[in-house]
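Researcher: Structure prediction, please.
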Amino acid sequence: MRNPTFAAREEIKREEALRLKAYRDFKGVPTIGWGHTRGVTMGMVITEQQAIDLLDEDIAEAVRSIYRHLPVDLIDALPVKCFDALVSFIFNVGEQAFRDPKTGKRTQFHRAITTDITLVPAQMQRWVRSGNKVAPGLVARRGREAAMWGAGLLERQQSDAHALGTESGIE
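Model: Predicted structure follows.
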Protein backbone atom coordinates (compact mmCIF):
# COMPACT_ATOMS: atom_id res chain seq x y z
CA MET A 1 0.00 0.00 0.00
CA ARG A 2 1.39 3.40 -0.98
CA ASN A 3 1.80 6.24 1.46
CA PRO A 4 1.59 9.93 0.65
CA THR A 5 4.76 11.98 0.75
CA PHE A 6 5.84 14.08 3.70
CA ALA A 7 5.02 17.14 1.56
CA ALA A 8 1.42 15.89 1.18
CA ARG A 9 1.10 15.45 4.94
CA GLU A 10 2.39 18.99 5.46
CA GLU A 11 -0.06 20.32 2.86
CA ILE A 12 -2.96 18.64 4.67
CA LYS A 13 -1.75 20.26 7.90
CA ARG A 14 -1.71 23.68 6.20
CA GLU A 15 -5.19 23.14 4.77
CA GLU A 16 -6.72 22.01 8.04
CA ALA A 17 -4.94 24.24 10.62
CA LEU A 18 -4.19 22.89 14.08
CA ARG A 19 -6.68 23.38 16.89
CA LEU A 20 -6.02 21.67 20.21
CA LYS A 21 -9.45 22.49 21.63
CA ALA A 22 -12.61 21.08 20.04
CA TYR A 23 -14.54 23.46 17.81
CA ARG A 24 -17.43 23.20 15.39
CA ASP A 25 -16.46 23.12 11.73
CA PHE A 26 -18.31 24.87 8.89
CA LYS A 27 -21.09 22.26 9.08
CA GLY A 28 -21.25 22.31 12.88
CA VAL A 29 -19.40 19.00 13.38
CA PRO A 30 -17.18 18.84 16.50
CA THR A 31 -13.58 18.83 15.24
CA ILE A 32 -10.12 18.83 16.80
CA GLY A 33 -6.48 18.65 15.75
CA TRP A 34 -6.05 18.87 11.98
CA GLY A 35 -9.64 18.23 10.92
CA HIS A 36 -10.26 15.13 13.04
CA THR A 37 -13.97 14.46 13.73
CA ARG A 38 -14.36 10.82 14.83
CA GLY A 39 -15.21 10.62 18.54
CA VAL A 40 -14.79 14.34 19.17
CA THR A 41 -16.96 16.05 21.76
CA MET A 42 -17.15 19.72 22.56
CA GLY A 43 -14.87 20.67 25.45
CA MET A 44 -12.22 18.12 24.41
CA VAL A 45 -8.60 19.25 24.59
CA ILE A 46 -5.60 17.37 23.18
CA THR A 47 -1.84 17.82 22.99
CA GLU A 48 0.04 18.52 19.78
CA GLN A 49 1.41 14.95 19.86
CA GLN A 50 -2.13 13.59 20.12
CA ALA A 51 -3.09 15.80 17.17
CA ILE A 52 -0.16 14.36 15.16
CA ASP A 53 -1.28 10.82 16.02
CA LEU A 54 -4.87 11.59 14.97
CA LEU A 55 -3.66 13.17 11.73
CA ASP A 56 -1.59 10.09 10.91
CA GLU A 57 -4.59 7.84 11.65
CA ASP A 58 -6.86 9.98 9.46
CA ILE A 59 -4.37 10.02 6.57
CA ALA A 60 -4.03 6.23 6.86
CA GLU A 61 -7.83 5.94 6.74
CA ALA A 62 -7.94 8.11 3.61
CA VAL A 63 -5.38 5.80 1.97
CA ARG A 64 -7.37 2.69 2.98
CA SER A 65 -10.49 4.29 1.50
CA ILE A 66 -8.67 4.86 -1.78
CA TYR A 67 -7.62 1.20 -1.86
CA ARG A 68 -11.17 0.07 -1.03
CA HIS A 69 -12.62 1.93 -4.01
CA LEU A 70 -9.98 1.88 -6.74
CA PRO A 71 -8.04 -0.89 -8.48
CA VAL A 72 -4.55 -1.37 -7.04
CA ASP A 73 -2.93 -1.17 -10.49
CA LEU A 74 -4.57 2.22 -11.08
CA ILE A 75 -3.38 3.53 -7.69
CA ASP A 76 0.14 2.21 -8.18
CA ALA A 77 0.35 3.80 -11.64
CA LEU A 78 -0.58 7.28 -10.39
CA PRO A 79 2.23 9.82 -10.40
CA VAL A 80 3.31 10.79 -6.87
CA LYS A 81 1.70 14.25 -6.99
CA CYS A 82 -1.58 12.77 -8.26
CA PHE A 83 -1.61 10.28 -5.40
CA ASP A 84 -0.82 13.03 -2.89
CA ALA A 85 -3.63 15.21 -4.29
CA LEU A 86 -6.01 12.26 -4.07
CA VAL A 87 -5.10 11.58 -0.43
CA SER A 88 -5.67 15.24 0.48
CA PHE A 89 -9.00 15.23 -1.36
CA ILE A 90 -10.25 12.01 0.28
CA PHE A 91 -8.93 13.15 3.69
CA ASN A 92 -11.24 16.15 3.37
CA VAL A 93 -14.23 14.76 1.46
CA GLY A 94 -14.27 11.14 2.64
CA GLU A 95 -15.51 8.01 0.94
CA GLN A 96 -18.58 9.80 -0.36
CA ALA A 97 -16.31 11.04 -3.17
CA PHE A 98 -16.44 7.49 -4.57
CA ARG A 99 -20.01 6.42 -3.79
CA ASP A 100 -23.11 8.39 -2.96
CA PRO A 101 -23.93 7.42 0.66
CA LYS A 102 -27.68 7.57 -0.02
CA THR A 103 -27.86 5.60 -3.26
CA GLY A 104 -24.64 3.57 -3.17
CA LYS A 105 -24.02 4.56 -6.80
CA ARG A 106 -20.58 5.50 -8.02
CA THR A 107 -20.00 9.23 -8.29
CA GLN A 108 -18.82 11.18 -11.32
CA PHE A 109 -15.50 11.57 -9.51
CA HIS A 110 -15.14 7.78 -9.26
CA ARG A 111 -16.02 7.38 -12.94
CA ALA A 112 -13.48 10.05 -13.92
CA ILE A 113 -10.61 8.54 -11.97
CA THR A 114 -11.28 5.05 -13.30
CA THR A 115 -11.80 6.05 -16.96
CA ASP A 116 -9.77 9.20 -17.75
CA ILE A 117 -7.51 10.64 -15.09
CA THR A 118 -7.22 13.92 -17.01
CA LEU A 119 -10.84 14.61 -15.95
CA VAL A 120 -10.08 14.35 -12.23
CA PRO A 121 -9.15 18.02 -11.58
CA ALA A 122 -12.51 19.22 -12.93
CA GLN A 123 -14.33 16.65 -10.80
CA MET A 124 -12.35 17.64 -7.70
CA GLN A 125 -13.40 21.24 -8.18
CA ARG A 126 -17.08 20.28 -7.97
CA TRP A 127 -16.68 19.32 -4.28
CA VAL A 128 -16.82 22.85 -2.84
CA ARG A 129 -20.03 22.81 -0.83
CA SER A 130 -20.44 22.49 2.88
CA GLY A 131 -24.09 21.84 3.45
CA ASN A 132 -25.88 23.82 0.76
CA LYS A 133 -23.33 26.63 0.68
CA VAL A 134 -20.26 27.10 -1.47
CA ALA A 135 -17.35 27.42 0.96
CA PRO A 136 -14.61 29.76 -0.28
CA GLY A 137 -11.99 27.77 1.63
CA LEU A 138 -13.05 24.60 -0.18
CA VAL A 139 -12.95 26.37 -3.55
CA ALA A 140 -9.35 27.37 -2.84
CA ARG A 141 -8.40 23.92 -1.51
CA ARG A 142 -9.91 22.12 -4.51
CA GLY A 143 -7.99 24.48 -6.77
CA ARG A 144 -4.73 23.56 -5.05
CA GLU A 145 -5.53 19.82 -5.17
CA ALA A 146 -6.47 20.05 -8.85
CA ALA A 147 -3.23 21.94 -9.56
CA MET A 148 -1.22 19.27 -7.71
CA TRP A 149 -2.97 16.57 -9.78
CA GLY A 150 -2.21 18.50 -12.97
CA ALA A 151 1.45 18.86 -11.96
CA GLY A 152 1.63 15.08 -11.49
CA LEU A 153 0.19 14.49 -14.96
CA LEU A 154 2.64 16.99 -16.47
CA GLU A 155 5.60 15.31 -14.76
CA ARG A 156 4.47 11.94 -16.11
CA GLN A 157 4.06 13.37 -19.61
CA GLN A 158 7.54 14.91 -19.49
CA SER A 159 9.04 11.69 -18.12
CA ASP A 160 7.33 9.63 -20.83
CA ALA A 161 8.56 12.04 -23.51
CA HIS A 162 12.11 11.86 -22.13
CA ALA A 163 11.97 8.05 -22.01
CA LEU A 164 10.70 7.94 -25.58
CA GLY A 165 13.52 10.26 -26.72
CA THR A 166 16.14 8.20 -24.87
CA GLU A 167 14.84 4.93 -26.37
CA SER A 168 14.99 6.37 -29.89
CA GLY A 169 18.47 7.86 -29.35
CA ILE A 170 17.20 11.45 -29.14
CA GLU A 171 18.36 13.44 -26.14
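Model: The longest strand covers residues 19-24.
Researcher: Thanks, that helps.
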